[in-house]
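Minutes, structural biology subgroup

Action item carried over from last meeting: produce the structure token record for Uroporphyrinogen decarboxylase (Pseudomassariella vexata). EB confirmed the sequence was re-checked against the source entry. Recorded below for completeness.
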Amino acid sequence: MTQLEEFEPLKNDLILRTAWGQDVERTPIWIMRQAGRYLPEYHEAKGKRDFFECCRDPEVSSTLTLQPIERFEGLLDAAIIFSDILVIPQAMGMIVEMVDKLGPHFPNPLKSPDDGQYEQVMQKRVDVAAELDYVYKAITMTRKKLKGRVPLIGFCGAPWTLLCYMVEGGGTKIFKESKKWIYLYPDAAKALLQKISEVCVEHLALQVKAGAQMIQVFDSWAGELSPSTYKYFSEPYLAYISKHLPPKLKEMGLDPVPMIVFAKGANQSLDSICNLGYEVVGLDWLVDPAEAVKIRGDRPIVFQGNADPGILYGSHASITETVEHMVKGFHGDGKKGWIGNLGHGVTPFMKPDDLKFYLSEVKRLSEA
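Output recorded by EB:
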């Protein structure tokens, strides 16, 4: 018996059918960062561990992944493994810490192609299976605990977004170092992006082997590039992942899984993003659903998104109005190609009951 055969059959495959372009009875929904700080039970389970300790403990990661599934029983159509996009730079030999109230921090970011560390990162043979074994253990454990209730999503950061973190040393508002790399050291930047892409493919494949049934690539800093630079420093590497993951899975004796790309802020490039080879394209809240459908045309792309997360700070009436606008925009042409989500992740201080209402409204209004 293979590992995948050990898992219970899916009772709810709505999101997978939608992602493959099939007609469905209603819009499936899941939420980015649906497991996290806004849930009181998250803080109880996390205890005094820091963020990356939680990621590296399969039992804790699994517990956190399941919390929203259990709290919002019957309203979420997928779980997403509790992990982080920065596990890949860690696997590539860089130190990443999570600093309280500040976020991720690289004590020694990449400064230039001649800083010594760049060469070490480029020359390192990354044993992804060994370095990130804790992620795969968490996925297998979670898949078993789900008992087929909903599918499990795995993920990675996009090469461009990971490069930004690796050279900036953390979050930033001006992207000075990232822009320096692409405009001062473009060849070295592209070589690093290619190396990251190869690690991403391996990481995603091993997540599927461990039990992930769908994957998402997060290009969180896509909006920092102009349309022309996006074509040089992000799109080729997103395309590399979508092109190489399916044959990699086949080589491992695994079936293909639906692939989602979420390029936050890159709506000016939506037309070309729809040609990158992903079944699903995630949208942020800065693009109108009907306009996105028009840009998509007759291409068999499923959209995911895209309510402003800020509506969860507002009234229930404003939540209903937003969902009605999405349903009309995404389903206005009679197509079913839409997975409900927010235009980015849940943020702190949101009330779980308001998220519950949002989930309920997507379900109610998309069934009508």
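Discussion: The longest strand covers residues 152-157.
Next step: EB to file the record with the rest of the batch.
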